[in-house]
Every structure is written in structure tokens, then in C-alpha cells.
């Protein structure tokens, strides 16, 4: 399992892309997707919602359990991935690509986001 | 106090296959090897291989073995033929269900009782206590057996290539001693998936060899190893109860909609059996004024009902979900639930499940959700 170097990560197992024109993409990591099992339902934040770093903004439901989705940053949601809503298994098959969850115009971010190496070490210890 | 989980004879094999393991009733068991949905679909369309060594085997032997079983259990075990099996239950004096069981008759005076892993000790203790006064021996055989199940439409073909036993002559709910891949096994045509399939009781030291032989024999027809996660969705689709969910000590078999397993017309012990008086009353209650009934629920949306969620109608709580999961076969979330008899009729309108504060619409249906084509 490799975590892309260009992304940053939270201890809640979300990833965050570098912002382009102030907009960053959010997803959950492969580690999290594997731990969840087959994702069958995704409730994502809606366009226009304000999300806050470290607070819940949706939920991911798998065969066995439901998990809260946390936002890694603060900002306004500009897009939710309709492909994932239609086919939640994308979260399992392509967590870093087609299985991204939402895009957010970042207005604030916490200072404890992890780089790929730090996240790999963190998730290996879980 | 924490105790280390028990490991089955196949533990190293599961880990080498990359299984996600989970604690289940004190055992470390495979939850899934890859995708639980793929495992589920393999059992429905091809074949799946399960390690069920956590189940509790108890051997009952002796001249009065059958008298003891008739007294201790709610079924009429006297009518089980040699080589046949029976689904039954063990109840308390007050009629509450201690466990659901399968009893295999292995010989004239030899029976094997298979209990759920979580209840194995309770059943063993109850049978031992109830054996007082009977010329019968109750033996804890939990360590004597590993249990491997091969389930799914391809399972007869797979097993045939490894055994001389007459599988065509082996009926559903029957078992016979034979050899599988050269080692002795009790071969039973039972399972918990809603599909045709077999359960193989063998010595733990033979488990790995038989697992590998089955894997090899099933390679060309799509057999894959399967974990407990898909076993749960398979049994749920098949409408089969799970102890701790649909069955508890708080319910009698009649409350659980399984009154048919209780046989009052027993010939042994002058008809006496543990729980008889309470169960007679429960039968009458179920006939005249059933409080709640076990029904199926199919979601119109995609949110999944879980055990303990409330079933609602017109703002009133009318029941409780006992098991729920996304159904791979139906492509929708499904659940079993106990609902007030007045709302239990299939097609009842306006029923919902409270999923974290939102009332999601559900359709009331008869169980099971899935029945295999024969």
C-alpha cells in the first residue's frame, strides 16, 4: 500500500491534494478503505456547505459499519463526487483517484497535516 | 481480564491468504479475505470455502442418548433417522431460547450436537446438567473437530472429486462418515448460506490438507475462501436466524416465528421436556395474540439498517431491527425485524427505519429474501 507523495494526510485517514486556485480535493486513504470493507453508501457534503477542519461532514457506510467522514480543512464545498454517490465501491477500487469525495475552497487548514512518510508510519502503527 | 483469542487449525493458512481477522466469540476468525461482496457472490453463483472450526461440537452417546436429547431439547429427536440431521433448539425452563442447534444422528445411540460458538459452553453445561438420571454420556468434543464448509452450486462437483462417498444419495440435512482427500470426515449436507453445500467435520490435524485439496479442486470453477462477513449476508438473505440477533433468552421459539421446531407430541419421557409448560403457554399466546412478528424489510433507499434500530410508522415505534446489511443479491439494504403484529403483513404501507434520526422508507416483505432455484 503506497500513499502518494504529493498528498497530505490526517490521522482520521483522509487525504488532501495541494490546492489549485485555492481548491483542494479530499478523499479517504487506501488504508481506510481497506479497513472499512466494501463501501455501499456515501453521504457527502453538498456544494455550498461550509466544512470545518476536524469536524464531521458526511458518512461512509460499509457492509459492516458506518464511519463519519471528517473534513481535513476548513472551507466551502465546491463539488461532491457524484460518481461515488452513484457507485460507492469506487472508494475501495480507486481511493486516491476516481474515488475522491469532495473539493473544497480552502480558507483554513490545521497545522498537523501529515506528509506521506509520516502518514505511512502512523497507519502502520494502527 | 483479557484472554488470548483461540486459533483454529487453519489460522496460519488464513494469514498466508491475507485474511482480515476478527474476534468472534473468543476465536480469531477470518472476517474476509478480499471483498466480502465478491465472496458472497461466489457462494451464490459458484462456490465458497469457510472455516467454521469455532462451532461447538458435543457428542451424546449411550443407551438413553435419545431420551436425554428429547428431554433436553424442544425437538422430537426420536424421529431422526440414522445419518440424518435436525435443526432444533435448547430452551430454558421459562421457554427462553438458550441456543439453536443442529443434531446429527451418527449411529444407533450416538448423536452430535452442534452449538453456536458463543453458546457452546452454555449448551454443554445445560446438557450435562440435564443428563442426570439418564444412561447417557455428554462429551465435550470442541477440540476434537475442525469444521470446513464448502457452499454454493459448484460444491457437489468439487467435493465429488475428493471423496468416494455417495453425495448424490446424501440428502439435505443428512450426514455420513466417509473420506475426503484421503482422511476421515463426517460429511454433512448442511450449511447456513441458502445454497447447496457441505460441512466437513474432521480432525484438526487434517484441516489444512483438506482445505488445500478443496482449493485445488475448486480452482477451475471459481471457488474462493470466504469469511464470516459474507456468511452473515448470505444467511440474512436466506432469512435464517442468528443467535443474539433474532434469537435470545428473552424470546421463546414461538415469539421468534419458529414454533414449528417445538414438538409437544414426544413419545419418550412421557412427553416431558425442559420448558414444556412455558412453551405451551407461548404457543397459545402466539396463536391468539402475537405481540410481534419477525418480518423482512427491503430499503427503498441506500442507507443500511443495523441491529437495534427502531422500526417506525406514523411517528410511532412499531418494532426493532435485529439484523441488517446491504444485500449483494438484491442490490438494496435488507433487514430482519420484529414488528407489531398489526403492521407485519407484507405490503404494509408507510413503514420506515430510523437511521440516525432520519426515517428511511422500507417495504415489509415475507422471509426469506432469497431462495435458490432447485
UniProtKB/TrEMBL annotation, chain A:
Gene Ontology terms: biological process: glycine decarboxylation via glycine cleavage system; protein lipoylation
InterPro entries in the record: 2-oxoA_DH_lipoyl-BS (IPR003016), Biotin_lipoyl (IPR000089), GCV_H (IPR002930), GCV_H/Fam206 (IPR033753), GCV_H_sub (IPR017453), Single_hybrid_motif (IPR011053)
CDD domains: GCS_H
Residues modified to N6-lipoyllysine: 64
Lipoyl-binding domain: residues covered: 23-105
The record's free-text note on cofactor binding: Binds 1 lipoyl cofactor covalently.
Swiss-Prot/TrEMBL keywords: Lipoyl
Function: The glycine cleavage system catalyzes the degradation of glycine. The H protein shuttles the methylamine group of glycine from the P protein to the T protein.
PANTHER family tied to this protein: GLYCINE CLEAVAGE SYSTEM H PROTEIN, GLYCINE CLEAVAGE SYSTEM H PROTEIN-RELATED
Subunit structure as annotated in this protein's UniProt entry: The glycine cleavage system is composed of four proteins: P, T, L and H.
Similarity comment: Belongs to the GcvH family.
Name this polypeptide is given: Glycine cleavage system H protein
Organism: Streptomyces vietnamensis
Lineage: Bacteria, Bacillati, Actinomycetota, Actinomycetes, Kitasatosporales
TrEMBL record, chain B:
EC number, as in UniProt: 2.1.2.10
Parts of the chain that traverse the membrane: none
Domain of life assignment: Bacteria
Pfam families according to UniProt: GCV_T, GCV_T_C
Keyword Transmembrane: no
Sequence positions that bind substrate: 199
SUPFAM superfamilies with a match to the protein in the record: Aminomethyltransferase beta-barrel domain, Folate-binding domain
Entry keyword set: Aminotransferase, Transferase
Coiled coil start-end: none
Any one Gene Ontology molecular-function term assigned to this protein's record: aminomethyltransferase activity
InterPro entries from the UniProt entry: GcvT, GcvT/YgfZ/DmdA, GcvT/YgfZ_C, GcvT_bac, GcvT_C, GCVT_N, TrmE/GcvT-like
Domain Aminomethyltransferase C-terminal: 292-371
Family from the record: Belongs to the GcvT family.
Entries under HAMAP family matching the protein: GcvT
Subunit structure of this chain's protein: The glycine cleavage system is composed of four proteins: P, T, L and H.
Annotated protein name in UniProt: Aminomethyltransferase
Amino acid at each position: 500500500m503506497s500513499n502518494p507523495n504529493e498528498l497530505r494526510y490526517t490521522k482520521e485517514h483522509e487525504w488532501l491534494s495541494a490546492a489549485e486556485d485555492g481548491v483542494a480535493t479530499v478523499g479517504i486513504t487506501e488504508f481506510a478503505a481497506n479497513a472499512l470493507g466494501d463501501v455501499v453508501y456515501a453521504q457527502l457534503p453538498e456544494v455550498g456547505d461550509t466544512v470545518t477542519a476536524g469536524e464531521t461532514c458526511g458518512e461512509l457506510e460499509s457492509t459492516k459499519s458506518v464511519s463519519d467522514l471528517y473534513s481535513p480543512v476548513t472551507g466551502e464545498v465546491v463539488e461532491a463526487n457524484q460518481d461515488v454517490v452513484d457507485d460507492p465501491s469506487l472508494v475501495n477500487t480507486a481511493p486516491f483517484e476516481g474515488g475522491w469525495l469532495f473539493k473544497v475552497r480552502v480558507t483554513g487548514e490545521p497545522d498537523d497535516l501529515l506528509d506521506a512518510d509520516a502518514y505511512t508510519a502512523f497507519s502502520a502503527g494502527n | 481480564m483479557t484472554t488470548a483469542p483461540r486459533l483454529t487449525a487453519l489460522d496460519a493458512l488464513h494469514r498466508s491468504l491475507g485474511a482480515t481477522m476478527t474476534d468472534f466469540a473468543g476465536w480469531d476468525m477470518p472476517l474476509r479475505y478480499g471483498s466480502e461482496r465478491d465472496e458472497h457472490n461466489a457462494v451464490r453463483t459458484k462456490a465458497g470455502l469457510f472455516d467454521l472450526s469455532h462451532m461447538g461440537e458435543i457428542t451424546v452417546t449411550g443407551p438413553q442418548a435419545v431420551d436425554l436429547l428429547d428431554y433436553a431439547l424442544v425437538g422430537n429427536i426420536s424421529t431422526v433417522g440414522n445419518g440424518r440431521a435436525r435443526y432444533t433448539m435448547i430452551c430454558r425452563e421459562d421457554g427462553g431460547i438458550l441456543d439453536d442447534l443442529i443434531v446429527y444422528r451418527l449411529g444407533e445411540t450416538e448423536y452430535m450436537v452442534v452449538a453456536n460458538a458463543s453458546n457452546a459452553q452454555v449448551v454443554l453445561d445445560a446438557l450435562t446438567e440435564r443428563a442426570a438420571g439418564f444412561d447417557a454420556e455428554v462429551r465435550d468434543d470442541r477440540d476434537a473437530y475442525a469444521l470446513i464448509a464448502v457452499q454454493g452450486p459448484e460444491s457437489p462437483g468439487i467435493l465429488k472429486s475428493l471423496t468416494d462417498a455417495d453425495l448424490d444419495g446424501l440428502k439435505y440435512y443428512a450426514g455420513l462418515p466417509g473420506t475426503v482427500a484421503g482422511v476421515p470426515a463426517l460429511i454433512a449436507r448442511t450449511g447456513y448460506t441458502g445454497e447447496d453445500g457441505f460441512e466437513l467435520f474432521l480432525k484438526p490435524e487434517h484441516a489444512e490438507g483438506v482445505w488445500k485439496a478443496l482449493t485445488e479442486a475448486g480452482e477451475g470453477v471459481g471457488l474462493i475462501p470466504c469469511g464470516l462477513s459474507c456468511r452473515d449476508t448470505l444467511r440474512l438473505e436466506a432469512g435464517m436466524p442468528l443467535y443474539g440477533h433474532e434469537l435470545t433468552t428473552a424470546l421463546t421459539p414461538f415469539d421468534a416465528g419458529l414454533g414449528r421446531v417445538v414438538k409437544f407430541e414426544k413419545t419418550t419421557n412421557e412427553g416431558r421436556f425442559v420448558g414444556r409448560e412455558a412453551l405451551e403457554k407461548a404457543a397459545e399466546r402466539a396463536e391468539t395474540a402475537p405481540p410481534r412478528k419477525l418480518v423482512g424489510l427491503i430499503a427503498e433507499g441506500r442507507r443500511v439498517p443495523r441491529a437495534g434500530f427502531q422500526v417506525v410508522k406514523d411517528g410511532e415505534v412499531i418494532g426493532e431491527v435485529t439484523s441488517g446489511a446491504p444485500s449483494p443479491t438484491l442490490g438494496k439494504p435488507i433487514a430482519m425485524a420484529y414488528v407489531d403484529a398489526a403492521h407485519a403483513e407484507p405490503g404494509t404501507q408507510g413503514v420506515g427505519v430510523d437511521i440516525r434520526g432520519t426515517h428511511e422508507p422500507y417495504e415489509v416483505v415475507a422471509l426469506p429474501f432469497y431462495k435458490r432455484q432447485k
